[in-house]
Amino acid sequence: MPCRLVVLVSGAGTNLQALLDAAADPAYGAEVVAVGADRDGIEGLARAERAGVPTFVHRLRDHATREEWDAALAASVASYAPDVVVLAGFMKLVGEELLTRFPHRVLNTHPALCPAFPGTSGPADALAYGVKVTGATLFVVDAGVDTGPIVAQTVVPVEDDDDVASLHERIKVAERRMLVDSVGAIARDGLTITDRKVRIGP
Ligand code: GAR
Prior knowledge:
By secondary structure, the chain is of the alpha/beta class.
């Protein structure tokens, strides 16, 4: 049985597309069973629809409290019985309900080398700081902001003439490869965490 993935997105969905493309090969070991979002009208949802994958949307502003939004999101995710939940450009902090339902099974990809530059503007913050290398981090989500145990990291150079868009695009090329490789390995072999150290393997 392939590993069941629910992917949450907020934007272009190129990381989602990389997972959809990889999962087309049965040897990959995972399938995207649903895609959720926190907003309508995004290319990430269109990518899911074109692939014939069911979608759901929960907008924060449609809920009285953040807890209610988190509970609704968690219920929709759970209805697809995922083995792993992947936040792929999901620009909201998920809450306790989702993390409690899927302990150590919610992964997030972040466009910086954690613990540097957490939050929603990783590439801009790295560029402003003047670092010479940056990259992307795949981690197991915990209650903090981009603080969870690290599954994988990938490094790219910062070029002298970079702007935020060119740097983020270079990161995303490496990020998609890291995400596809790591999620596939986790799907096939599983994951254990000991003292923050993540190990993929049986
Ligand atoms: C990715 O670079 C992802 O790491 C980032 O948004 C981009 C989404 O691209 N996420 C964050 O910044 C979360 N803090 P995509 O929609 O094309 O996959």
